[in-house]
């Protein structure tokens, strides 16, 4: 943690708070990203899941070097199942809401995240008319099964709209399906927060 803070440049850092129920795939998602060319620096994994080395909570924040619109910056990600853990210590620029595509209960948990949205406004948004960018992601896309519990993309996209998210995307950390596209869209949204216009999407949710 101390090493990460030493290398962190506040002027070129975008802080992202990742929220979602325990077990929805957040750790696997972030751990898989670390293996890519833009993965977080200096992390030590200790456990494995589906052949993927998992990061520890003590490894946070996770740092990713990004280049967007000819500008270099760093993504600083915090993973938590409880937004209240960071209300007093963190000022995120972007909030990422995650759920497990194979588990309808985790999607229901996001539907109750309307309260999270109210808390985000209460704790993080201080300017008049200000609205922090929010992206919703469906994880474990490879486990989508065609049965009575099936969550269609249209359904989760509708919920993303209800939550006033700026973007919606799906991916699988295990197979890598749409993983690069999801991270690219997250990086694009984060990069927009470094511009004068900001990262809020005009006209509502964008699906990837």
Counting DSSP E segments of at least 2 residues, the number of strands comes to: 9
The assigned structural class equals: alpha/beta
Rg, alpha carbons: 16 Å
Percent range for helical residues? Answer: 25-40%
Separate helix tally: 6
The description of the largest β-sheet is: 7 strands, mixed
Largest beta sheet: what is the strand line-up?
A: 4-5-1-6-7-8-9
Distance between the termini: 33 Å
Instruction: Tell me, briefly, the overall form.
Output: globular
Could you characterize the architecture of this molecule?
This protein has 208 residues and is an alpha/beta fold. Helices cover 27% and strands 24% of the residues. It has helices at residues 2-7, 26-33, 104-111, 114-124, 153-162, 179-192; strands spanning 13-19, 47-49, 52-54, 62-68, 71-80, 94-100, 134-139, 167-170, 206-207. Strands 4-5-1-6-7-8-9 form a 7-stranded mixed beta sheet, sandwiched between helices. Helix 6 (179-192) links the parallel strand 8 and strand 9 (206-207). The termini are far apart.
